[in-house]
Amino acid sequence: MTNIWTGVRERVLALRTAPRMSEVFGAVWLDDHGHRFELLPPLTPDELEELEHQVGVRLPEEYRTFLVEVGAGGAGPDYGIFPLRPGTESTKARAKNLAVPFRPQEIGDLFDEHQYNEPAGEHFLNAEEFAAAYRAWDARDDELREELFAGTLYLSSQGCGYYTVLAVTGPEAGTVWDDVQALGEGVAPKRHNGAERMTFAQWYMDWLAYAERTAWEEPQRTT
């Protein structure tokens, strides 16, 4: 069976010297920010075991092999892959209740209905009643947002309040989704070449192909 990650770390690191590396989104921004095609060291098998013990589940296969063969974070789509190492608070924060299966359709429907039923002031006799109703609605809104992303791991920031998440548990495990709460919505699947779902490896390898094409190709001259 072919290892999808063979040579990927070397290809990514080689982009550090590409003539147009700064043209790749997320690689360089505000002069001293960006992943600059650096990768954290891969996890050892023992570190991966400790990490999975910490989050309470076995990670999807494509992602777990990425962690031990390519890197535990760094260069990647969006503004780069968030670091993921055992024993860190950031890892705990990005793992959203992985013991609960990711249920985007079921919880998404509840979320959409809840958003539609936001309290309106004209439906209440006085400001106190409206304030109480809105506090209850707002508390339920927070609960549904947490439930919507249960079973996911935050992979990266797209900027402007948008994120990419990996479904870790449930029937969607191994697929990649957009956190689009900044649009007033919830979660949406990434699609791949007409397919309704995109896996972690497809997401990363599509980015690498784009990065190599952008960073190594000479710009076209205009006459």
Explain how this protein is built.
The protein is an alpha+beta fold and 223 residues long. It contains 7 helices and 5 strands. The chain has helices spanning 8-14, 45-55, 61-69, 89-94, 104-116, 127-148, 200-216, and strands at residues 95-96, 152-159, 162-167, 176-179, 187-189. Strands 1-2-3-4-5 form a 5-stranded antiparallel sheet. Strand 4 (176-179) and strand 5 (187-189) form a beta hairpin. Helix 5 runs antiparallel to helix 6. The model has no long low-confidence stretch (mean pLDDT 92).
Shape: globular
- Averaging pLDDT over every residue, what do you get? 92
Largest sheet: 5 strands, antiparallel
Could you give the order of strands across the largest sheet? 1-2-3-4-5
Give me the number of helical elements.
7
Radius of gyration: 20 Å
**Multimeric state:** single chain
User: How many angstroms separate the termini?
Assistant: 49 Å
Give a nutshell description of this structure.
By secondary structure, this protein is an alpha+beta fold. Helix content is 38%, strand content 10%. The chain has a five-stranded antiparallel sheet.
Main attributes?
223 residues, alpha+beta, 5-stranded antiparallel sheet, 7 helices, globular
Secondary structure topology:
Blueprint: H1 8-14, H2 45-55, H3 61-69, H4 89-94, E1 95-96, H5 104-116, H6 127-148, E2 152-159, E3 162-167, E4 176-179, E5 187-189, H7 200-216
Antiparallel strand pairs: 1-2, 2-3, 3-4, 4-5
